[in-house]
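User: I'm writing a short report section on ligand binding and want a predicted complex to refer to. Could you take this sequence and cobalt (II) ion and write out the structure as tokens? A short remark afterwards would be nice.
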Amino acid sequence: MPEGGWHPASWHTRPAAHQPPWPDPVARAEVLAQLAALPPLVFAGEARRLTRALGAVAAGKAFLLQAGDCAESFDDFSADSIRDKLKVILQMAVVLTYGSGVPVVKVGRIAGQFAKPRSSATELIGEIELPVFRGHIINDDTPTPSARVPDPRRMLAAYHQSASTLNLLRAFTKGGFADLAQVHLWNLEFLATSAEGRRFEAIAEEIDRALRFMNACGVDLSVDSPIHQVDLFTSHEALLLEYEEALTRRDSLTGGWYDCSAHLLWIGERTREIDGAHVEFAAGIGNPVEVKLGPTATPDEAIALCERLNADRAPGRLTFVTRMGVDKVRSALPPLVRAVSAAGHPVAWVCDPMHGNTFASESGHKTRHFDDVLGEIQGFFAVHKAEASWPGGVHIELTGDDVTECLGGIEGILEAQLPLRYTTTCDPRLNARQSTDLAFRVAELLRG
Ligand code: PEP
Ligand code: CO
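Assistant: Sure. The structure tokens for the complex follow:
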């Protein structure tokens, strides 16, 4: 590597926002050395496969469904919760594919989504000021001073939880559970009797009938057929840069560097400064990358990010995830789309309708309204239609659990119901009914 060129530690020379103040530098150094010696979680070839799939999204030939928790939790970690999250994602993907005829690229916010950017270093709990919760890879959410002390050993726990999660996801997606012939099994029990559940069941029946028809016509649906497996890729915010650096490895096939903690990494709204450490790190890894763009992002910033992160203009390498808020999407998004199109950069555009629509309820719960989430997606589609650009996907915070964290939806969750089942460690997530309902609405937008 030439002096001054990119290497996994070159971000050290740049200002790095949102890094934790580890109190124990010796323990931190030991953990990082251990992480650097542990096996990669994903392979470079898989990341390249995702880049190709996202290239199809950028070209208007596929749609991205990226979904999962705001923050994965060390406490809520079980085979059942992973399976149920996967069920919702598979179910949404089937609704989208069947409803629109467009292939759906599936990416989870999963198996590594542990670090959170926070607007303030401390928070007030009652009368006491505590260090803020930064995600389970850094500290614990229990509101006591000792729980909030950053502990570097948590990076090892996050690595191991990611490895187990990924192992289970690989087994589920390649071992028969995600077989299209099993489509009925993805309807979660509490969903099955609801209107969305019945609507999904009707699609499942039609898929069954289509498979029987193809079989009768002699189409080969034996074990090698792609209908028996799905690709589910992993992603998380590349926020905690020393963790990402420790998992960045040279690919033996191409000689390039890949961050092997996940297939796709994104840079958040708070860390996308062009000269900052996060952009420097992302610039050198071979993985596909995303950058979140909020309502203050300018066309110049978007172009600078394109030049810096995808100078070669490789389709699928760079995706912009816009999170404008329902009130701003129709005015803030067009200048960005226009500038990037005019510059000829092949980015995929994806809508995160969650992070621009968060507010606190009277009870103090962070929440979002289903109508705002849907409204931002509708605005996103309208802008792309007007700009002759492809609305390439959605980025959703959801869970397979029957939570009451977001308002509205078919069940019409009210503010008073939020405390009933509010279990997120960070932002509010759509529950399975709201997610499936949303998928039907997005499929209609794609068709229209
Ligand atoms: C997130 O995706 O959880 C997040 C913090 O998003 P943003 O960077 O868009 O605020
Ligand atoms: Co979030």
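A remark for your report: The longest helix spans residues 79-100. The chain is about 40% helix and 15% strand.
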